[in-house]
Amino acid sequence: MVNRVEITPKAAEIIARLKTQHGALMFHQSGGCCDGSAPMCYPVGDFRVGPQDVLLGKIADCEFYIGAAQFEYWQHTQLIIDVVPGRGSGFSAEAPEGVRFLTRSRVFADEEVAELEAAGPPARAA
């Protein structure tokens, strides 16, 4: 099964470090607030997801959500979460580490789109 969201090994290393500091984490793909369109990482419970948030999947055992309006734009692409040097201007948990998460993407192949469509739409947050 193709995943709607993936993570680079380098980003997974940062998440492992952040988990030791903050405990369980979650992600929300920002739609323009704070740090542009950066993926934002929060300790579980510090960011409230609602029924308009779509659960894309998990990366490094962290749930990854995106707003429904953003999902409409990104639904034909796989999001690949990476990390780069430099601080973002948002409230994401990695900011004190001197790095920031970054979303890269690639368009799904026709076969992958068919597979995702057959699986049905992704779940929404409760």
Features:
single chain; four-stranded mixed sheet; 3 helices; Hypothetical Protein Aq_1857, Chain: A; three-stranded mixed sheet; about 130 residues; alpha/beta
Polypeptide structure, described:
It comes from Bradyrhizobium rifense. The protein is an alpha/beta fold and 126 residues long. 25% of the residues lie in helices and 35% in strands. The chain has one domain: Hypothetical Protein Aq_1857, Chain: A. It has a four-stranded mixed β-sheet. A three-stranded mixed β-sheet has the order 1-6-7. The longest helix has 14 residues. It is globular, with a radius of gyration of 14 Å.
The span between the termini is 24 Å
Share of helix, binned: 10-25%
Q: Tell me the β content.
A: 25-35%
| Poorly predicted ranges | none
Broad CATH class: Mainly Beta
DSSP summary, beta strand count: 7
CATH topology: Hypothetical Protein Aq_1857, Chain: A
Give the SSE string: EHEEEEHEEH
Per DSSP, the total helix count is 3
Give the strand order, joined by hyphens, for the main sheet: 3-2-5-4
Total tally of structural domains = 1
CATH architecture: Sandwich
How many whole angstroms does the radius of gyration measure? 14 Å
InterPro entries: DUF779
Protein name: DUF779 domain-containing protein
Pfam families: DUF779
Set down the secondary structure blueprint.
Elements: E1 5-7, H1 9-22, E2 25-29, E3 39-43, E4 53-59, E5 62-67, H2 68-74, E6 77-85, E7 99-107, H3 110-119
